[in-house]
Design brief:
Length: 223
C-alpha cells in the first residue's frame, strides 16, 4: 500500500490536475492526503473573502466525500499572495514527516499561475529538507519521498514524462469537480479538463482519457 500526498494551491486544483489518479489510488487501497495551501478566497467577486473561503472549503469537503477521500488539510494562506517563506516550509516539512508519503503530487514547474509556481517551489524544497537530519524546528523524523509528480492545471505541460490512464475514473473526477459550483459559475473548468484529458488520451495513445505529469523525482512508480 502506498501513501500519497497531493498539494494544491486552491481547492479544485487537485481535481483538475490529478483527480482521476486520486480515485485510482483510493480504489487500489492507497492512502491519500490532500493539502490546500489556500482556501481560494480570491476566486470570485460575488462574495466577500471570508464568505468565499467558507464556501470553497465546504465544496472541497463535499468533493472529497464523493471520492471517498477522508484526509484533507487547509493551510489557509492568503489566496493570490502565497509566499515562499519559513513558516510555510516548516508546516509542509512537518506534514511530510508526519504523513510519510511515498508519492507527492504538486503543480508542475512551468505553470504560469503564481500561486501554482510558489506551491511547486515550496513543496519541492520541503521534500528536500524533510529527508535530512536537519531543521529541528520541524516536527517528526526525517522522511524521504520516493516519487514526485507535477500535474497540469493552468498551463499544459510542454514535455510529458509520465501518463496515467484515468478512463474508468473520469466521470467520478468530473462529478467531484462540479461540486465546486462557485468556480464553475464563471469558468467551465469541468469541460476544460475533460477536453484536456481526452486530448492527452488521444495524443499519447495510453487510454481514452489520461492525466499527464512531469516527473520531478522517481525511484519507483507505485500503482
Amino acid at each position: 500500500m502506498s501513501r500519497v500526498m497531493v498539494f494544491a494551491p486552491h481547492p479544485d486544483d487537485d481535481l483538475i490536475g490529478c483527480g482521476g489518479s486520486i480515485v485510482k489510488h483510493l480504489q487500489r487501497g492507497n492512502t491519500v492526503t490532500v493539502v490546500y495551501l489556500t482556501s481560494g478566497e480570491s476566486g470570485s467577486l460575488k462574495y466577500s473573502k471570508a464568505e468565499l473561503a467558507q464556501i470553497r472549503e465546504a465544496e472541497a469537503t463535499r468533493a472529497a466525500t464523493l471520492l471517498g477521500l477522508t484526509d484533507i488539510i487547509f493551510l489557509r494562506n492568503p489566496d493570490g499572495y502565497l509566499e515562499f517563506n519559513r513558516d510555510n516550509l516548516i508546516r509542509i516539512i512537518s506534514l511530510i514527516r508526519d504523513k510519510q508519503p511515498n508519492i507527492v503530487y504538486l503543480p508542475h514547474s512551468q505553470d504560469l499561475h503564481k500561486d501554482h509556481l510558489r506551491t511547486n517551489e515550496l513543496v519541492l524544497e520541503a521534500c528536500n529538507r524533510a529527508g535530512g537530519p536537519w531543521f529541528q524546528e520541524c516536527a517528526g523524523e526525517p522522511w524521504s519521498v520516493d516519487t514526485i509528480l507535477g500535474y497540469e492545471v493552468w498551463t499544459p505541460l510542454i514535455y510529458v514524462s509520465y501518463v496515467e490512464d484515468i478512463t474508468p475514473y473520469l466521470e467520478q473526477k468530473i462529478a467531484a469537480l462540479r461540486l465546486h459550483e462557485s468556480q464553475l459559475q464563471d469558468i467551465q473548468y469541468d469541460e476544460a479538463v475533460r477536453s484536456l484529458n481526452r486530448y492527452r488520451g488521444i495524443m499519447t495513445g495510453k487510454g481514452q482519457y489520461c492525466e499527464c505529469f512531469q516527473i520531478l523525482k522517481v525511484s519507483e512508480l507505485y500503482g
